[in-house]
Amino acid sequence: MLTELVLLPEIDAEFLVEKGFSHQVQSENGAVWVIFQDYPLPTTYVPNRVELLIQLPAGYPSARPDMFWTYPDVRLANGSFPKSSDVHEVHCGRTCQRWSRHFPEDRWRPGIDNLRTYMAAIKRELAQGI
C-alpha cells in the first residue's frame, strides 16, 4: 500500500480501496500502471475475466490516460478481435492486447477527472461489445 500511495494520487488510491478491486500498481518507463486482476468483461467477449492494464502517463492527473490493455487476448464471441485491438505490446512483464481507444482530450477535465472517471469511460466502451 505504501508504494501505491507514492505512485497514485490519494483520491485514486481511495477509489481502488472503496471498490475492492484486486490490483497492483507498478512504475515502468516513467509511467504508472494500474493492473486490475480478474477484471470482468461483458458476455460479448471471451474470456470473461482478464487483467486490465491502465497507464497513467507522466503529468497525470493533469495529463489524461489514453487507451487500455488486456491480458490475455480478448476476442468477440465470433472469434474476431474487437475493434482496434489487434496490436500487442509488452508492458509490466507480459504481452498485452492494446485497445486503441482514444478519449477526446477536451473531455478530460484536470482537477476533476481521475481513475474513477477513466474506469467509467472504459466500462462504457466495453459495454458496446465491439
Overview of the structural elements:
With 130 residues, this protein is of the alpha+beta class. It has one domain: Ubiquitin Conjugating Enzyme (Roll), CATH 3.10.110. The protein is built from three helices and eight strands, in the order H-H-E-E-E-E-E-E-E-E-H. The strands form two sheets. It has a six-stranded antiparallel sheet. A two-stranded antiparallel sheet has the order 3-6. The chain is globular and about 40 Å long. It starts with a helix and ends with a helix.
Which secondary structure elements does this structure contain, and how are they paired or packed?
Blueprint: H1 2-7, H2 10-19, E1 23-28, E2 31-40, E3 45-46, E4 49-56, E5 68-71, E6 75-76, E7 87-91, E8 94-99, H3 115-127
Antiparallel strand pairs: 1-2, 2-4, 3-6, 4-5, 5-8, 7-8
Gist of the model:
By secondary structure, the chain is α+β, with helices and mostly antiparallel strands. It has 3 helices and 8 strands; from the N terminus they run ααββββββββα.
Distance between the termini: 35 Å
The biggest beta sheet reads: 6 strands, antiparallel
Q: Tally the helices.
A: 3
The overall average pLDDT, rounded, is 92
List keywords for this structure.
Ubiquitin Conjugating Enzyme, alpha+beta, 22% helix, single chain, 130 residues
